[in-house]
Amino acid sequence: MRATYPSTVVFALLALSLSPLVQAQDIAALTADTRAKAVPVLPKIAGAMKAAVEKDGLDGAVGVCKTKSPELLKEASQATGWPMRRVSLKPRNAETAVPDAWEARHLADFNIRAANGEKPETLEVGEVVAGADGKQTFRYLRALPVIEVCQNCHGDAASLKPAVTARLAAEYPHDKATGYSLGQIRGGLSVKRPL
Ligand code: HEC
Fold first, then answer.
1. Which of 14, 19, 113, 120 pairs as cysteine with 145 (C-beta 3.0–4.6 A)?
2. How far is the CA of 91 from the centre of ligand 1 (A)?
3. Residue 63 CA: distances (Å) to CA of 53, 66, 99, 137, 165
């Protein structure tokens, strides 16, 4: 009888690890850990942008945004080992920012959640997603709401400074990222964490 005890325990643990409750706790822990390690890149990007606007003026900062933001994201990816990028339902950079199906679904959901009264700056989602190869990845998306400074380059197209409009047209012929008002969700920080 004694010999069966450990296997019973193992079986119970296995059953427990498959229970939705434990899974929900795991996801909450993964979400918190990913937030803690990935989200600090966002104020770095905002800080670099602010410094660039002060130093180079708005149209100069467009160029800095193009090189500096991906650099900072790359550094954060290398530090954590997790691919990270910024995505949007109305992308400016058509090469890097077009969302995949999971990202698009949750960005649309963020818009609904914000419309239902959730604070845009707190919106996030974490989920375990199985790929076509069966491998599981933890995916995290954090909303990037529009604050005042963003409107210089993402606000109503007619209100942008002519130098900014010209620079954007030259660098981003497929730009869809204007027309935002305060509090709207410009896009998301997307993280893929291999499990
Ligand atoms: C000086 C102009 C400027 C300002 C100010 C600015 N952005 Fe951008 N934004 C850009 C440019 C240029 C890109 C494209 C960067 C690239 O090529 O990767 C961009 C890209 C993005 C992206 C990546 C997705 C995409 O559409 O390519 C997000 C998200 C974003 N901006 C959010 C914001 C937010 C939020 C703010 C305010 C906190 C902000 N931006 C302020 C110029 C600006």
1. 120
2. 9
3. 10, 5, 22, 33, 13
